[in-house]
Amino acid sequence: MAAVKELIRAEEDGSISFGDYELAAKSKRQEEYQGDIYKVKTFREITKLERNDLFVYESVPGTAVEHFKVNADSVEFRVEGPEDAQITLGMEDDTEYLTLVDGVSAGAIKTGLGGKLVLSVELGGKETVSVKVVKA
User: Fold this and answer.
1) Residue 125 gets which letter from DSSP?
2) Of 22, 105, 117, 119, which has the most beta carbons under 10 Å away?
3) Hey, how many other C-beta atoms are within 10 angstroms of the C-beta on 25?
4) Per residue in 78-119, pLDDT tens?
């Protein structure tokens, strides 16, 4: 996959791709897509995405994300990075979600009042890892 050199881009399937973990210095880009304003901040230490000034995605260290798609009850994407990453997603408050990493259940995670869902993804040595989070 490699890093998204334009920092954020729309895909033909209606999803977006973003992030460049190869950058030594923090870079930012804002893009309008389907009536929403997306802001990405990315470099080797962190990748963060906001939609209309609301938190959507963050990874530590930085990652590249392809085909990020949000539906009413789920979030799906493929992620790549140089090492294992902690990913935080902005979801609904006080809701339980089932997480699948490369098709294998990583268990159920319940969000708190802030709606943040945190999961770890083993990336070292793999090209990409698929992540799917579905409302239970």
Assistant:
1) T
2) 117
3) 6
4) 999 999 999 999 999 999 999 999 999 999 999 989 999 999
The residue to which tokens 């334009």 are assigned: 6
Sign for the CA dihedral angle at 85, 89, 95, 101 comes to negative
Q: May I ask the CATH class of domain 8-135?
A: mainly beta
Whole-prediction pTM: 0.95
Helix (H) / strand (E) containing 107? strand 104-110
* DSSP class per residue in 3-55: --TTSEEE-TTS-EEE--TT-SS-EEEEEEETTEEEEEEEETTEEEEEETTEE
Q: pLDDT tens for residues 10-24? A: 999 999 999 999 999
Residues 23 and 97: their CA atoms lie apart, in Å, by 32
Q: Is 7 left (phi over 0), alpha (psi -120 to 50) or beta?
A: left
